[in-house]
Write a structure and sequence with these properties.
The structure holds 2 protein chains of 2 kinds.
Chain A lengths: L1 H9 L2 H10 L16 E2 L2 H7 L14 E3 H11 L1 H4 L36 H10 L10 H14 L8 E3 L14 E2 L22 E4 L20
Antiparallel strand pairs in A: 2-3
Helix pairs in contact in A: 1-2, 4-7, 6-7
Chain B lengths: L1 H20 L3 H9 L72 E3 L18 E3 L12 E6 L5 E4 H6 L3 E8 L16 H5 L2 E10 H8 L7 E6 L6 E5 H4 L4 E6 L2 E2 L9 E3 L12 E7 L14 E2 L5 E2 L8 E6 L10 E10 L5 E7 L7 E2 L1 E3 L8 E9 L4 E9 L8 H8 L12 E4 L5 E6 L1
Parallel strand pairs in B: 3-12
Antiparallel strand pairs in B: 1-2, 3-4, 5-6, 6-9, 7-8, 7-12, 9-10, 9-11, 13-14, 15-16, 16-20, 17-18, 17-21, 19-20, 21-22, 22-23
Classes of the chains: A mainly alpha, B alpha+beta.
C-alpha cells in the first residue's frame, strides 16, 4: 500500500510498473523522500549488510570465542601469511610485537603497538580476513581470533573469552597515542622570490640506486610472483 | 538521411576515382575491375591489391611521401571501442613489484610524464586496491543508506541515475604518494614518485541529495562509507563534508566508471585523501560517532617523531611537480626549454606556482594554464633558457588559502620521517650537463 502511494505520487505513469516491482512492501510507515526513488530497506536487509563495529561495542553480535579456540583457527587460516606468532611472513603484515617502538627510528606498527581500539580488530578480521576468503568466518571464529591476536600481544590473559561485553572493555596500550584533530597546516613556508638561501647542497640522489622499475617496455615483474 | 548517406558514399567514390586516375592505365583497369571499388562506393580492405607497392623508403618524412598517405587505413569501427596507437605502448600504468606482497592489495602509478592535460585518461588512472578489482554486475549491485535516517533506502543503479546529476573535475591522490622518499631519494622516475594522483570529470549524484532523501536525524554527525569489494573498505566521514561537495559518482570522463575506479559507483570526496573515495560503494550509514575502522587507525594515520600519531588527516595539502623535464623526459638540448608541470590543492584553487632553476635560491612565477579549478589538477609552465650547465629545478605552489608548498626539510622538521602519508614537499630534479634528469634531495 505504502509503496503504491509513494510511486503514484512521485512518478510519471510510465515508471509506475518498475517502481512497483522494485519497491517491496515493508510495513515501514515512513513517508517517502522528495524523489521517492528506490525501495525501503527492510530490517533483514540492513542486518545482513550492517557489519561495522564501533569502539563502544555497537555492532558486535552474539557469540564468543576463547584464546585457545582462536589459536586453532589462526593456525588453519592465518599463520601462513601472518606467521605463527604474528611475526609476519615475507611482506605480509606483522600482527604482534613492536611494543614501545613507535618513537624509534624504525617503528613497528602492529595491533599491539599501534591500534587504538580492540573493536577494530574484530571488525577488520570479520570483513576482510582471511585475505583469500573474506567474510567466510563465523562470528564465534572471529571472536576467538580476536582473543588470540590480543593474547599474542600480551593485551589479554590466556583465559580471556571475547564476546560483545568483554571486547569493548579491553584497553589497547596505544589508545591515547592518537590526536583525532588535524593540526595541519603545521609547516609554513614563505614565498621568498630572491636570494632565498646562500648555498644549495644535494644530499641524496636516486641515481644508481637501482630501485626504479622500468618506465618503458613491458611491465617490470620484479620479485612479485 | 539516406540522401545524405548517398552523398557521402559519392564523396568516397570520387576520392577513389581520383586515386585511380593517378594510376598507370593498366593498373587503373585492374583497380576498377578488382571490385575494391564497388558500385555503392564501399571500399573493401585498405590495400590496393595488385598494385606493385613502391619500394618502401627508409624514412617517411620529406622528401618522401609516407606510405600512409598512399594507402587506405582500416575503416570505422575497426576498433569499436577505440584504443591508443600501438606507438603509445609505453604509456601504461606501472607498479613497483618490491613494494607490496602481491598485486591484489597494491598500487599502480599513472604515467604523469606522458599526460598532456589535467584529465587522466580512464585507462591510465592510478589504481589502489585492497582486495583486487571486483567484477560487479550493475543489475545486482545496490546502495543501501541507513543508520540515523528517517527512511532507510536501497537504491538500484537505475534508481541512482534518476536523481539530478552533477559533474565536477577533481583530482584523487593517494596520501602515500611519494611516501617512499621520506628517508632519501630512492626512485628515479616521475611516474613512480608522484603517479598516485589522477584527475577526472566525475558525474553522479550529490551525496547531500541522497542523504536528504533518506532524511538525516538530528543526532547524525558521521557517515560510514563501505565498498562491496573483498576488503569491504570503510571510512568514517563527518557529515559536514559529506553534505558539502561529496558525490556518488557513476561516470568518469563521460563514460561509466572503470572497474578499477569503482564500477558501478564510487564516492568522490573532493580534496581529501584517496582512501576516503570509497570504490564499489555499497553502503552508507549515518551515525553519531566515527567508527575507527582499520583504514583510519592502523592505516592512514600519521606517526610523529614522538611516537604519537595524527588521525583524521583527510585534506591533501597543496602540491606541485614539474612533469617536463623529469627523469623520463630529459632536456633535449641547450636553448629554450618549456618547463611544465601540475599543481593541485585539497583546500581549493591553485593561486600561483613558482619555479626555481637553482635549487630554491631564486624563484620566478610560472604561468597557470586555464582552466584553474578548485580541487583539480592545474597546469603551469615557464620558459627557461638552458645554458647547458647542471641545474636544480623545483616548483612551489601557493593555494587560495595562502598555503605555500613546503620544502622537504621543513616537512621533515615538523613531522619526522615515519609518517608515510601526506608528503607534499617540493620536488627537486637535477638536470645534468647531458640533459638527463635525476631525482635528488637537498639538505
Amino acid at each position: 500500500m505504502f509503496s503504491f502511494l509513494k510511486s503514484s505520487r512521485a512518478l510519471p505513469g510510465i515508471c509506475l510498473g518498475v517502481a512497483l516491482v522494485s519497491a517491496p512492501m515493508t510495513g515501514v510507515a515512513e513517508p517517502a523522500g522528495h524523489y521517492g526513488y528506490g525501495a525501503s530497506a527492510t530490517e533483514e536487509q540492513i542486518a545482513a549488510w550492517d557489519i561495522d563495529v564501533r569502539p563502544d561495542g555497537m555492532g558486535l553480535p552474539e557469540g564468543s570465542g576463547s584464546v585457545d579456540e582462536g589459536m586453532q583457527v589462526y593456525e588453519t587460516y592465518c599463520s601462513s601469511c601472518h606467521g605463527a606468532f604474528g611475526e609476519g611472513m615475507g611482506r605480509y603484515p606483522k600482527l604482534a610485537g613492536g611494543d614501545g617502538s613507535l618513537a624509534e627510528d624504525r617503528p613497528e606498527k602492529t595491533v599491539g603497538s599501534y591500534w587504538p581500539y580492540a573493536s577494530t580488530l574484530w571488525d577488520y578480521i570479520h570483513r576482510a580476513m582471511p585475505f583469500f576468503a573474506p567474510q567466510s568466518l563465523t562470528d564465534d571464529q572471529v571472536y576467538a581470533l580476536t582473543a588470540y591476536v590480543l593474547n599474542l600481544n600480551y593485551i589479554v590473559e590466556s583465559d580471556f573469552v571475547a564476546n560483545k561485553e568483554t571486547l569493548p572493555e579491553v584497553v589497547m596500550p596505544n589508545q591515547d597515542g592518537f590526536t583525532w584533530e588535524d593540526p595541519r597546516p603545521v609547516v609554513s613556508n614563505e614565498r621568498c622570490m630572491k636570494d632565498c638561501k646562500e648555498s644549495v647542497t644535494v644530499s641524496d640522489s636516486a641515481a644508481g640506486k637501482n630501485l626504479t622499475p622500468s618506465t618503458t617496455g613491458p611491465l617490470d615483474e620484479g620479485i612479485t610472483e | 538521411m539516406l540522401g545524405k548517406l548517398r552523398r557521402l558514399s559519392q564523396g568516397v567514390s570520387e576520392i577513389a576515382l581520383e586515386e585511380s586516375e593517378r594510376l598507370p592505365s593498366a593498373e587503373r583497369r585492374r583497380f576498377l575491375r578488382s571490385g575494391l571499388f564497388t558500385a555503392g562506393g564501399a571500399m573493401v580492405g585498405g590495400a590496393l591489391a595488385g598494385i606493385a607497392p613502391k619500394a618502401l623508403a627508409a624514412t617517411q618524412y620529406p622528401p618522401e611521401i609516407p606510405s600512409w598517405t598512399r594507402s587506405l587505413g582500416p575503416g570505422v569501427v575497426a576498433d569499436p571501442y577505440g584504443v591508443p596507437s600501438p606507438f603509445e605502448k609505453d604509456v601504461i600504468r606501472r607498479n613497483v613489484p618490491w613494494l607490496t606482497a602481491d598485486k591484489v592489495s597494491s598500487i599502480s602509478f599513472s604515467p604523469l610524464q606522458h599526460l598532456k592535460g589535467i584529465i587522466t585518461p580512464n585507462g591510465l588512472f592510478f589504481e589502489r586496491h585492497h582486495a583486487g578489482r571486483p567484477e560487479i554486475d550493475p543489475q545486482q549491485h545496490r546502495l543501501m543508506i541507513h543508520g540515523l535516517v528517517d527512511r532507510p533506502i536501497i537504491l538500484s543503479m537505475e534508481d541512482l541515475q534518476r536523481f539530478p546529476s552533477v559533474s565536477q573535475i577533481n583530482f584523487i591522490e593517494c596520501p602515500a604518494n611519494g611516501g617512499m622518499e621520506w628517508r632519501g631519494a630512492q626512485l628515479n622516475s616521475l611516474q613512480f614518485l608522484h603517479g598516485m594522483v589522477s584527475c577526472a570529470e566525475w558525474t553522479g549524484v550529490r551525496l547531500s541529495t541522497l542523504l536528504q532523501e533518506a532524511g538525516i536525524q538530528p543526532k547524525g554527525k558521521w557517515l560510514l562509507a563501505e565498498g562491496a569489494d573483498g576488503a569491504a573498505m570503510t571510512r568514517s566521514i563527518p557529515l559536514e563534508k559529506a553534505l558539502d561537495d561529496v558525490i556518488v559518482a557513476y561516470a568518469q570522463n563521460g563514460e561509466a566508471l572503470r572497474r578499477e575506479q569503482g564500477y558501478p559507483i564510487r564516492l568522490v570526496v573532493p580534496g581529501w585523501e584517496g582512501n576516503t573515495h570509497v570504490k564499489w560503494l555499497r553502503r552508507l550509514e549515518v551515525g553519531d560517532k566515527p567508527w575507527m575502522q582499520r583504514e583510519e587507525t592502523s592505516k592512514y594515520t600519521d606517526l610523529m617523531p614522538d611516537g604519537t600519531a595524527h588521525g583524521f588527516t583527510w585534506v591533501m595539502e597543496a602540491k606541485s611537480v614539474i612533469t617536463s623535464p623529469c627523469p623520463e623526459m630529459p632536456v633535449r638540448g641547450k636553448g629554450i626549454c618549456q618547463i611544465e608541470g601540475l599543481a593541485w590543492s585539497g583546500r581549493g584553487k591553485v593561486r600561483a606556482v613558482d619555479v626555481s632553476v637553482d635549487g630554491g635560491k631564486n624563484w620566478q612565477q610560472a604561468q597557470l594554464r586555464e582552466p584553474v579549478m578548485s580541487k583539480s589538477l592545474t597546469r603551469f609552465s615557464l620558459e627557461w633558457k638552458w645554458d647547458g650547465n647542471p641545474a636544480l629545478l623545483q616548483s612551489r605552489v601557493i593555494d587560495e588559502t595562502g598555503y605555500v608548498q613546503p620544502t622537504l626539510g621543513q616537512l621533515k622538521a615538523a613531522r619526522g620521517t615515519n609518517s608515510i602519508y601526506h608528503k607534499n614537499a617540493i620536488q627537486t630534479w637535477k638536470v645534468n650537463a647531458d640533459g638527463s634528469v635525476v631525482n635528488v634531495q637537498l639538505s
